[in-house]
């Protein structure tokens, strides 16, 4: 292996933006984040399919609150909730709060599941399958889709 074939050790995608990659196949863009871009790639999805890129692209893909609209962003009344569902802005940028929280709290646990429904049906207070520490301290031996419900106390201001 020469110096040009070395990979970085880890890439963490924070709700990777959708708008630049929607037409990947048509435009033949090669800068879509993929699990092979680093020795270990993990992605945190907080607005999956709206602003955030939909799909699993890491060795570990984590979906707080199901990964689409964050509960902390849906507490501002009917008009605020309508704006959130229309734009997804709060759910997209809240990923930075999750990341920061994971640095301060090395006990945030995500449970492996095939879907958010499976996670909820399995009683999210206990993992019946594999579990992994969420965020900064995720084990690099983990692999697959993980879910967690972790209440952030305050949504970011847009």
Automatic annotation (TrEMBL):
Q: Does the keyword Lyase apply?
A: no
Q: Give every Lipase domain span.
A: 4-137
Indicate the principal place this protein occupies in or around the cell: secreted
Q: Could you tell me the keywords of this UniProt record?
A: Secreted
Superkingdom assignment: Eukaryota
Q: Which InterPro entries match?
A: AB_hydrolase_fold, Lipase, TAG_lipase
Q: What Gene Ontology cellular-component terms does the record carry?
A: extracellular space
User: Can you cite a GO biological process for this protein?
Assistant: lipid catabolic process
Where in the cell is the protein located? Secreted
Q: Which Pfam families match?
A: Lipase
- GO MF annotation terms: lipase activity
Q: Which family does it belong to?
A: Belongs to the AB hydrolase superfamily. Lipase family.
Stated name of the protein = Lipase member H
Query: Origin organism of this chain?
Result: Orchesella cincta (Springtail)
The taxonomy runs: Eukaryota, Metazoa, Ecdysozoa, Arthropoda, Hexapoda
